[in-house]
């Protein structure tokens, strides 16, 4: 599981951009009880990166 900081570094997007992707439902985010912030599956992040890369 990745933190939002990990996601930003992995796909080289700003924190604001990643927050927007979460809000739009493009990037699935998981809230884990008793853990601050969201967590992300690496496969979801990689799939998003592939979709963005192919579209560019």
Number of helices: 3
Biggest sheet, in brief? 2 strands, antiparallel
Uncertain regions: pLDDT < 50 for 5+ in a row?
none
Helix content: 55-70%
Q: Domains counted in the coordinates: how many?
A: 1
SSE pattern: HHEEH
Radius of gyration: 11 Å
Distance between the termini: 27 Å
Strand order of the largest sheet: 1-2
Count of distinct strands:
2
Outline the structure in words.
This protein is mainly α. The chain has one domain (4-55). Helix content is 55%, strand content 7%. The radius of gyration is 11 Å and the shape is globular.
Please give a quick description of this structure.
The chain has 56 residues and is mostly helical.
Key features of this structure:
56 residues; mainly alpha; two-stranded antiparallel sheet
Walk me through the topology.
Blueprint (H helix, E strand, L loop, with lengths): L3 H8 L3 H9 L6 E2 L6 E2 L2 H14 L1
Antiparallel strand pairs: 1-2
């Amino acid at each position: 599981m990745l933190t939002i900081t990990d996601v930003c570094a992995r796909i080289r997007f700003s924190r604001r951009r990643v927050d927007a992707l979460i809000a739009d439902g493009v990037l699935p985010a998981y809230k884990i009880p008793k853990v601050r912030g969201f967590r992300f599956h690496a496969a979801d992040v990689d799939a998003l990166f592939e979709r963005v890369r192919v579209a560019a």
